[in-house]
Amino acid sequence: MPIIRYPIQKSVAKTVHGRTRWFCKYEYILVDVKDEVAEFLALDNKQAKRYKWKIEKQMQDAKIYTQVYLDDFAVSKDGSKLDFPVAETIEDTVHSYGRDPLEIIMEDKVEKGRAEFAELMSKMYAFVLTKKQYEVWKLNEDGYRPSDIARLLNIDESSVRERLRNAQKRISQIAKQAEK
Fold first, then answer.
1. Considering only CA atoms, which of 166, 165, 168, 163 is closest in space to residue 153?
2. Structural domain boundaries enclosing 67
3. Are 127 and 93 found together in one domain?
4. Does 115 share its domain with 79?
5. Rounded CA gap, 74 and 142, in Å?
6. How confident is the model over 64-85, as pLDDT tens digits?
7. Which one, of 23, 7, 27, lies nearest residue 98 by Cα?
8. Residues 145 and 95 occupy one common structural domain
9. Which of 19, 30, 42, 129 is the most buried (most CB within 10 A)?
10. DSSP 8-class letter at 72
11. Which positions ≥6 away from 3 have C-beta within 8 Å?
12. Residue numbers in the chain where pLDDT is lower than 70
């Protein structure tokens, strides 16, 4: 099995000028991989090289011939080089709380799953409830108070409360049947 160097991104807290700032730090670990994974990574590396070549070509077309690094300008008032690179003073705004990138990805997946579940439940409610009950239920879920719903639908507030109560009964009956 081939062994590759795999980069892991970590958020690291550093104190710069008395303030704690978060930076991305890359560490490499050695990983045994299958031949298929090694082939994929080699292909991915070729694509990265092509991308780099494309960027260089675009820079040439735009007549950009040099790149200036901020660290070159890191000079103190007396003319000596500073002991810390400018790149370290640039704050990591993406992971400002030192959060692991994997944690962020998982959080996005969970949020997407919740949204899909809420949409599925809304469809189920539309199927189970009467048209009037669903209309009141949906407005209630959107954050409207019963008095606001009554005004919007031109009905009494007591009717709104009754429709909500009946909708909740019907939903709880369906939930009990689903448990059996």
1. 163
2. 3-99
3. no
4. no
5. 53
6. 777 666 555 556 666 666 555 5
7. 23
8. no
9. 129
10. G
11. 30, 31, 32, 33
12. 67-102
